[in-house]
Amino acid sequence: MSATTVRTAPRPAALATGFGVRAAARVVAVPDGRGSTGLPVLEGEGPFALRRLRPAGREARACLVGAMSAPLGGDALTLSATVADRAALRFTTTAATIALPGRTGAPAAYDTRLDVGEDAVLRWLPEPLISAGGSDLRMTTRVDLAPSARLVFREEQVLGRAGEDTGRLVTRLTVRRAGRPLFDQELAYGPGAPGWDGGAVLGGYRAVGQLIVVDPAFEERPVERTLLGETAVLTPLAGPAALVTAVAPDALCLRRYLDAAANLMDW
Known about the structure:
disordered N terminus
């Protein structure tokens, strides 16, 4: 068996304009022909600094290291990852991402695109996003899965740093499996978002997150609806998937909920 070769044209450096920074990062994971996974493409611009970590069995590991403060108001950031057929990738970050206000008052955009092939596995486990006071961030994530792909996707937001109000944060997460919608959710917090802090949404809490697990094995062994605490629940989705949603007073408590759920599902 020979390893897959991926060729890509060199990317230009991040573009700084009067309205913010335009930057992109890309990860490609492929089988290396020796029972593990290689990373032939690991490239980033501006605030994106990507590093290889020690692999674990079949799984390649990549980490994002923040090279500069981002996203600031006016920035446009794009992050993509492709996991080829029969490859496995675990993606993490070294620290929380902090959305900060820019000089112009323009919103920032952070777009993530993930593609996972047949019999491939992606564990997407970044540290939380912190919405600092005065910031305005529009964040979109789209995940496309092959029918036999497996996914663990964690998303956490902390609304405001210690002692400050939150900024405005609008997030949309879309997951498609075999070309069909599996999950599509948009959430809005902060100034201009009606009812976001009420009892029907956050109820005064400032940390919110979700964990999505997609596994073809759930077709025969679906997860059971489980209350994980007063403010966290595990529910099956209409597909071989499960969703954990949680709110908490702080990021540490939120992570405990999500980790407990992952352990419950043996992920």
